[in-house]
Amino acid sequence: MAAAHHDHHEGQRVSRRRLIAGIGSVGLAGLLAACGRDSGSVTTSTGETVSPQATTAKDLTALFADANTCRLTADTTQGPYYFDADKIRSDIREDRAGTRLRLAIRVQDSEKCGPLSNAVVEIWHCDAAGLYSGAEAQSSGGGGVPGGAPPSGAPGGARPGSPPAGGGAPGGGNGELADLTPTDDKRYLRGAQVTNADGIVEFTTVWPGWYRGRTVHVHAMVHIGTDRVLTTQLMFDEALNSKVFAAQPYAAHTGRDTFNDNDNIYDASMLLKVTEDGDGHLGVINFGVDADRDGQ
Asked: Where is this region: Disordered (predicted)?
């Protein structure tokens, strides 16, 4: 299977707050405003250029065909650990150990069933020990113990089967939690990419770990213009979770208490289609988004 695409800006930190002078907005909204004006290439105030990824390898075509094509993707809570991490990159691993995971996400208009180019897709997730960068103290569960009790306000704080904090069940909206103010300077396992002409982005990361009260998941957010048009999560088949977690560094983190069948956010539509990919795995999914915000 073809290796993940890496452009010549791979790993480069590009502050979204230095993007094109005069846009009138900051963060991801500024990036999207710049992308929407022309071919999708963004020139920063320092002369750096960020472009959408080149067309994804043909080996993904069949996988995308079976991955929830054009269905409106369930909207859910962003959780307590989201913030604009200023990381435009496809390889988000930094120093985190774990089983390599290549993620390919195709963004489509749920009504027109066509690709959406020049959208920004962000992902973020915990490491093998259940920690989130920028929020290591909070995500340790108190006392610095990885995998401890979920912090107040985390989706995992609710009883299995009850609505997540703020009522952010699939399809229930995503505005109930404020963006996090980071409490450390780590930025691993966070990144953003701009969709190409096929509506596709690719990331290289590691298989997520787990923390108490939640099943294994990756958070994702899609921005078009100044709007956050989708906030959702990606899930994994439990047989694959068990296989990955039998090896280090995951095996050192024991006592997992929440699985897909008792997670209060899990929905089958969030499952990635996963295949083996060299020494790791490839997961693909389609996001159907309400691009014109008319509820369809």
From this structure: 136-182
